[in-house]
Amino acid sequence: MGFHSLSFLVMDEDTIGHDDVIGKITLSKDAIGSQAKGIDSWLNLTRVDPDDDVQGEIHLSLQLLEGPKKPTLRCQIIEARDLAPRDISGTSDPFARVIFNSRSAETSIIKRTRFPHWGETLELELDSEGLSEQQGTVTVEVWDWDMVGKNDFLGKVEFPVACLHKTPLLEGWFRLLPLGNNEVDVGGKLGALRLKVRLVEDRILPSMYYQPLIDLLVESVEDSSALTMLEEVTTVESRQDVAMTLVKIYLGQGLVVPFLDYLNTREVNHTTDPNTLFRSNSLASKAMEQFMKAVGMLYLHEVLKPIINRIFDERKYIELDPCKIDLNRSRRISFKGAVSEAEVRDNSAEMLQGYLTSIIESIVSSVDQCPSVMRVAFKQLHKRVEEQFTEPENEDVKYLAISGFFFLRFFAPAILTPKLFHLRDQHADTRTSRTLLLLAKALQSVGNLGLQLGHGKEQWMAPLHPIILRSVACVKDFLDKLIDIDHDTVSEVPQRAILLPSVIVKEGYLHKHKAEGTQLLSRFAFKKRYFWLTSETLSYAKTSEWQVRSSIPVRCVCAVERVDENAFQQQNVMQVISQNNDGQLQTMYIQCKNVNELNQWLSAIRKASIYNERMLPSFHPGAHRSGKWTCCLQADRAVPGCSRTHSAVTLGDWSDPLDPDVETQMIFKQLLQGRDKLRKKYLEMPDDDQTSNKEIRINSDVNPDGAESIPQLMKTGQSVAARLLVVIEDLEQAHVTFQHREKEDTPSVILNP
């Protein structure tokens, strides 16, 4: 929450030694937040200035003492944390310096740490005449001492003397600031990055404030009005976010099937031409799409991942379009001369048919793997479409409605861009990407039950038409089996997690540090182990087939954090801190193969443990070795951590835990933007908004449930609109109240805004 800037560094990878920095872009929090739609532009790289590349905080106190002769400035330098590493070992040798006018004093140097503890008091005698003018600045600087060459700047804090007169004793943690050298734009000589950055920052109120809005939304599954009004004020740009948020709200309430049924029923009843059913990006279409991602991602992985991996591994040159065939790309070991265009097409068709057959067989044999809640949602959709389109010529519409979502909006996009669905860690190269595109096109035709074959421009896809047409019957049979499920098999109990306890959220080989006490060299102390993470346990074994596993209950996890490189002289190491039955803290160190894998595991374990009650506020980014912590050099193993934990810092994706307060806040913001539109349409409010709001408020207070608060002459829509506006007004007022409280709690003198 306390971040001030976001930096992007472009690196030059070196096989030996540390990577070189080509240039960087730094965006302040204010600069990002000032753009409602975020930043989307090309930005020139600038040179990295060490004096501006500072980080961390310093804990100190400043006191102005009025002596009999001369006043004295007493500065107690207590400690610092998260200082920038300036030495090749990944640490620094910091010392602090206090400066006022021409006088200065320094602390001792603490070697090899980014978390120094000084506990020293420095005093400066001041000139009474200069001090009485209340001008000047007291500066506290932190430097990295170097035996050879000049010292490296680590940051500074400045205190106006006027503040010391108003507040004789200042104490706290203060952010270290750069020297203030303006970054020089070298006119794009270092290159440029195109960035899309958006900051969404909300104040989340206590749950009790959101309950009335949740109650209205839950009511609307039966009553429909509140959801109708929300859809009316939802912009095209925000429709996907609103859809995903609503899916999560109703998942948490155990009402996602009725919610989807309501949206789909409205969509079906308002559609006269079956050929246009669910073809637009309506709230119903977006909600179904997001619902499948939320509950069906692991199912998708089971079905597609083996085939996708095979395509990536084989990396075949495949092309059917005569205009795009490049004979130089097609390799063939033969003594018959060059490969002809016809041979390339035949080989490509044969390989595509093999891949497509594997995909279709994997999908149509996956009925039992498909989540029950997805099957019931599709069953309801099938029923609504069948009721609306009863004509014999529309016999296939009930299948097309389901396959349109299942194949066109779920499986085909996952084949086209596997990385976005977490099927692969990296995007496909040009060759593999073309193969995936052709397969996605073919699977779309399968989802359309082959009805569009031969009518489009891409007649060169004809070699795949026979297999597509042959698959229609088995796809229909698959869809019939998919919806052959009892509605009661889906639990309507509210759930706080999308995933079941037994479902594996993440798995793979990592390197685990051996038990403490071993004196092996760092590179031999990490052993390869296979890890599994579910919402209940983090377990590991020698291999994925190994029956004997060790595990840590997720409920016992207290922190999941990075480890400094100098702790083990190894990169990409994280630590999982847990508490055993005796209340003792235990730390397991795990090494990942690269920084992306490290971020993914950190995020996954943090999400699984996000509701734990005993999360630590601080941790040690080093390790306790040779009788002291490598980070802060403290000897006591049980000393509180020297750096703040980052439990809430996660990567946003489909496996995010449900958070009803955050989700309802997003819906409130959408309704707040459309409040005037709702008032004008449903209540025909006069110009005197205050009088009208007052009337609504009085009626609401007479009967809190809102059912009889509006005159009986008003229509149901008007009644719900009035209740909805009252809820919006209550939430808006709550935000104002909390904002005032925060201002009252903030010190009048803000030294580091």
UniProtKB/TrEMBL annotation:
Cross-referenced Pfam families: BTK (PF00779), C2 (PF00168), PH (PF00169), RasGAP (PF00616)
PROSITE patterns assigned: C2 (PS50004), PH_DOMAIN (PS50003), RAS_GTPASE_ACTIV_1 (PS00509), RAS_GTPASE_ACTIV_2 (PS50018), ZF_BTK (PS51113)
Residues of the Ras-GAP domain: 238-448
Species, as recorded: Oryzias melastigma
Taxonomic path: Eukaryota, Metazoa, Chordata, Craniata, Vertebrata
GO MF: GTPase activator activity; zinc ion binding
Record-annotated PH domain positions: 503-610
Gene Ontology biological-process entries: cellular response to calcium ion; intracellular signal transduction; negative regulation of Ras protein signal transduction
Protein name: RAS protein activator like 1
InterPro entries: C2_dom, C2_domain_sf, PH-like_dom_sf, PH_domain, Ras_GTPase, RASAL_RasGAP, RasGAP_CS, RasGAP_dom
Domain C2: 54-174
Keyword Zinc: yes
CDD domains given in the database record: RasGAP_RASAL
Keywords assigned by UniProt, alphabetized: GTPase activation, Metal-binding, Repeat, Zinc, Zinc-finger
